[in-house]
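User: Can you help me understand a structure? I only have the sequence.
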Amino acid sequence: MDVVQRALRTLNDRRQRSRASSKTRAASPASTRASSSSLSPKLRTIQAAPHPIVAGGEGKVCPISGMFADVQVLEVGSTASLEALRSDPDIAQEMRTLTMDYQDDLAEHVKTAVAKTVASPPVQLVRFSAHDGRHEPNRATQELVRGVGLPALTCFTESFYRKVFADSHIDQFIASHEDPHHLRFALWIQEKFGDGTPWTRERRTRPKKYMKVGHETVQVAHDRSSAHFAAWHSPKREPHKWGVHFRPDDARVWMRLHFWAARETGMFEHEAFMEYYTRFIGHFISVYSTHAPPFTRESARWSSDPVNVQRYLQSGRVMEDVIGKDVFSELEKLPAEERLYTGSRARNPVWPYDSGRS
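Assistant: Let's start by predicting it. Here is the structure, written out as tokens:
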């Protein structure tokens, strides 16, 4: 029940911070809260900054929100890219789910989810379920995730974020280590596999965060699209890369760390789950980079060889064989059957959407 207790403490802490943040904003002068009518059409729903930026604070990390106080004017096309992210079928479905009315409390759901894992029956390998660009959970995927259980998922994602925070290449995309990233990720997996809506309910309790981008104040990290947008504009990034989208090498490092954490925490012992989950990552990684999915299986294999891990650690946690490499040259190094990615909309889709084994 350690996972439940941690989740409850995290939920209570967030609620207290959210109440304090709401009181601070309510007491702020009206002049510090921008009118939504003055924003551009695409950003009409963006909320104003929770406090005024003090003189001399421009261009620095905000001590209240942990976000960038003021940065260069947003380059043309970035807000359009945010809108493109929101149009992704999976992200659009997540937004629809958020608008639905749920009465259950997150803490109660976590207790129920843990209880459900006790008597979960073994399952056979499950065919990957996606249609028209969107992952579609079903009873089989629900049984897969219940068979693993939330405690195991949280152990896995916690290990993953420890590796991410130690990797300077990926950590540059994360503005703050204080947020409960690992719990959110575990709940997202649980929800995407069809076991309730714990991630959606958790999103409703999050304290609001804002990022000043040019002349606009954008609420970030309240869903996957805004989290990606915040990562592109992280204050940790080099100035000349600020606002640049994820590249295939970014996605490859992310996946290698991810599957390494899964291997270390025993997730690969759940064969049916990891067979499906590898395909699941192959599908979802395409929103980061459309060139990344073919590297999913290679990324999963990478940590199975201790030599690869040792080389990575000895290099100062830098994946020198990935970062900065030409993606098309790298594709040629893959087995021929792993080089193609069609997406789920293709008439004859290939991995991860086919029915064969990984």
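Now, to help you interpret it: The chain has 15 helices and four strands. Residues 28-50, 63-77, 101-120 have pLDDT under 50 and may be disordered. Let me know which part you'd like to focus on.
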